[in-house]
Records
---
Amino acid sequence: MTDARSGGAPTVLRVVLGKRLQDLREKAGFSYQQAGRALDVTHATIRRMEKAEAGLKIPYVEKLLRTYGVTDHAEIDIFVSLAREANQPGWWHRYRDVLPDWFSAFVSLEGAASVIRAYEPHYVPGLLQTADYAHAVLRAGLPTASEEEIARGVALRMERQSLLTRRDAPLFWVVLDETVLRRPIGGPGVMRAQTARLIEACALPNVRLQIMEFSAGPHSAMYGPFHIFRFQIQELPDVVFTESLVGAAYFDERDDVSAYLEALDRMCAQAAPALSTEAILRGIHRGI
């Protein structure tokens, strides 16, 4: 588990390269301490590079590759080129004035995932929010923020949504608690527009929405919201994201991820089928 309350968030590419460096070190039979001595740095520096907790210094990368027995110049050049790219901030960096470090990691994972599954008991996920709904949610969560800060947060959220319509868009599969649709956020007009947006989203081939109706009773994930990210990149394991009032946690240990996957699978079986979601939404929309 990674507690992401502070510190700069890495790009997914930096995570991948860190894992590749770890694999090369382990295959070469080097300990953290031995690799550190090769660079004349502490073992903690090696560990932080592998865990993507620090930038990939190019001279360090080149020397580590040679230390681990990589002799092909073309392979080294490609790795170094990728390291330079990984050290560049993501597109969301320009929103750093309103984007916490712990959520930067979420945006990076979101953009690289091939499958995003989620449970939301409180509000519509950011990728499906209207601008007015997003404004109301952000204002409730940041009561002392300036209007400019709220507007920047909304702009970031709207830009993230292009993910769902790009050519290689991920599968976005969400279980929404009925509470999300019943809680009035921003007034009736905002809620009508938001439910209309969800109805439109049902037509997207890569979006699957299920409603956990009140009549379904208790379920296995009533403790809070979470996201599960899956990647086509071999080096990346599934990652679970959970959020709290002061930060977030990211889990990638197999047992932890399996617990969340099993809970979500049970919820998908318990929730109303995706084929009935549009009808449920239209019924709620008419009643607003």
---
Amino acid sequence: MIDEEKCYDEVRRMRWPHAVDCPRCGSNKIVKRGRNHRHRACRRDICRNCAKRFDDLTGTIFMGRHQPLSVWFSYLYLMGLNQSNLQIAEELGVNESDGQWMAEQLREGIVKRRRKARLSGLVECDEVYIVAGHKGRPDRIVGRAPRRRRLKGAPGRGTLAKDKPPIFGMIERGGEVRIVMLADVKQRTIRPLIEETIEPGTLIHTDEYVIYDALPAWGYQRKSVCHSRGEYARDEDGDGFHEVHVNTMEGFWSLLRS
């Protein structure tokens, strides 16, 4: 995909798998109008129905950008390899601020087009509370520079109003994950998310938090572990495998905190 012509061919294949249609009115009565004078691989068209002129990139995040399409494709590919924006910018020879902006545009486009997750099978639900900075009390440290500096936040379970926003997560074992930041974690706030994301009748694993007590009434099965008693996983069928837990979601939270 480092060839411009191949990149434009791929855009056309994805946008119009059967026939070119107008981005404005959807008509397929299209007349070719040559090529873009700045990007020769980009084809221009005009709609006979609404008289709108358009090209291969009209209505996409690539429209009107000075970077070649091959650079955008390469940036997206390297993002998929989990490279940093700085590293990608250096590899592609683009300005770091331009690379940051390109990454933001690509991520926003991906989020807009991503289908909503629909979880089933065995799902874990959990919540985490995030505050700014690093954990600890730097004012109590004597003799060296503190390693951690973080807002303390209000005691107890956090809310957005207390600068300790809760993140609610749902993960299917071996499948997708969905996380949402909420103003607070209550039954009235999590029920719409659960019903929108998790198939009815699904077995859900949680901790002992009382907000999950209503899951059976909402049409779900529930098994839980009690973290306050030191129980983090339980073997119910005696096969030696502790299958009742929310450790998959807990592992995801460790990545989120990092």
